[in-house]
Amino acid sequence: MRRPGIYIGLILITAIATWAVTALLFNIQERKEEGKVTHWKFVELREETVDAKEWGKNFPRQYDGYLKTSDTERTRYGGSEVFSKIDMNPIWKRLFAGYGFGVDYREEHGHAYSLSDQKETLRTKNYKQPGACIHCHAGGMKNVYEKLGDGDLMKGFAIACAMPLEKVWELAGDHPVSCTDCHDPKNMSLRITRPGFLNGIKLVKAQQGIKDYDPNTMATRQEMRTYVCAQCHVEYYFSKPGKLVTYPWHNGLTMESAEAYYDSIDFADWKHAETGAPTLKAQHPEFELWNQGIHSRSGVACADCHMPYQREGAVKISDHHIRSPLLNIQRACLQCHHFPEKEMLDRAETIQGKTAALLKRSEEAHEAMLDAIVDAKNNGISDADLESLQKLHRKAQWRLDYISAENSMGFHAPQEAARILAESIDYARQGEGQAKLLQTTSEKPSTESPGVPSG
C-alpha cells in the first residue's frame, strides 16, 4: 500500500516544475520585448545635432561605448597614448627633416581626441594650415559644408578646404568625430558624409565599370560597415590650387597606384632638408592596406573587428568603444576563429613583430642612405646624379612611411606589408651604394706634387 506522502511529493514536484517552466517562459517573453526596444526617443535628432551627448539620450548604450574612446589602453605595437614618436624613435626626426612631422609626430589617439589633438599639435600652432585639415577631425562637417555651399555639399567642401584652418574651426565648433558623421539622424542608417571619400570611391568603382557610384544608395550594409571607417582612415593629399582633400585612388588602391598618381602630377609634400628629394608623406592608409588582405577578401568589415557585436540584456548592439581587436579578442576574433584567446593574440603579435623588425631594418637602411647622399652632395656630384639619388630616396621613404603610418603594424595585410618594406630596404640600399660610387668617381685628383723621398 502506497503512502500518501508519495502523492504529495509528486504534486509538489509537478507544481515546482510548472512554476519554473512558466517563469522561464515569462522571462523569455520579457527578453523578447526588451530586445525590441533598441533606443528611446527623448530628443529630436537633426542634421545640426552634432553633440554626441544629445544622441546619447536616445542611444545610451552606444554613447557609453563612445565615451570610452577617451581611454589610453595599449597593445604591444599600438595604443591611444600621448607621446612623441620622434622622441621615442629619433630617426624619424631626420626622415622628416624640413617638414612639420619632424617637429611634432605623436602616437595615434582615440576618436574622442580627434579635434583637440589637431588644435594642440605644433604642426597647426607653428605652421599655417588650410581648412582642408579639418575634413576628418571635427564632428558634423556635412552640416558645415552644406551651410557654406548653400545646400551643396561639394561646393561647401571646396570653399572650406581653401579657407584658413582657424576659420573652419570656428564654424565647426568644439565637437570631435561624432554620431552624425556615420549615422543619418532621421533613421540611424549608416551613411557617408565626407566628400573626400565620396569622390575617391567613385574613382575606384569607375575602374570596375560602375559609373556615378554613390555608396549611400548603392553599397550593401556590410560594405557600409567598412566605408564609414574608410571615410578617414586613408591616404590623402591636398590638391592645388584650392587645397581640396583628395584620395589618390585614380589608378587603384595599392601603394604603387598612389605613387604612380603622385608621380604623374609631379606632387611632393615637401623637399627633404638634407637631400633635396621631393618627398611624399603617407597619412594613415588603413583602408588601402586592408584591401590587400585576407579579411577584406573574406568579406570581413572594419566594424566586425573594431566594433564587434555585444549584448546588453536582450539587446544586440555594435560596441562603440572603437579600439584594437587585440584588446577585445573574445568578441572581436573568436566569433570566427575557434582557437584559444592566447593563441590568437600570439598569432597577431607574431605578424606585428616581424613587421616591426622589417621597419627597423628599413630605418637603418635609410639612415645609411641619407649619410651617403649627404656626403656625395658635399663632394660636388652633378645635378643629374643627385636627381637619380633623390628618386631612390623618394621611393624608399614612401614605402617605409606607408607601413609605418598605417596603424595595424602590418596586420591588415602581412604579406603586402612585408613586400613593401622589402622594397623600401632595397631602394634605400641602392641609394646608399649609388651615392658612395658617385662620391668615389667624382673625387678630384690631387694637384700637389708627390713628395721627394729622403735619402
Flag low-confidence runs. Answer: 445-455
Q: Strands across the major sheet, in which order?
A: 1-2
Give, in order, the helices and strands: HHHEEHHHHHHHHHHEEHEEHHHEEHHHH
Mean pLDDT: 92
Structural class: mainly alpha
- Count of DSSP-assigned helices: 21
Distance between the termini: 141 Å
Give a written overview of the molecule.
The N and C termini lie far apart (141 Å). The C terminus is likely disordered. Helix 2 runs antiparallel to helix 3. This protein has 455 residues and is mostly helical. The protein has 21 helices and 8 strands. It is globular. The strands form 4 sheets. It has a two-stranded antiparallel ribbon with strand order 1-2. It has a two-stranded antiparallel sheet with strand order 3-4. A two-stranded antiparallel ribbon has the order 5-6. 37% of the residues are buried.
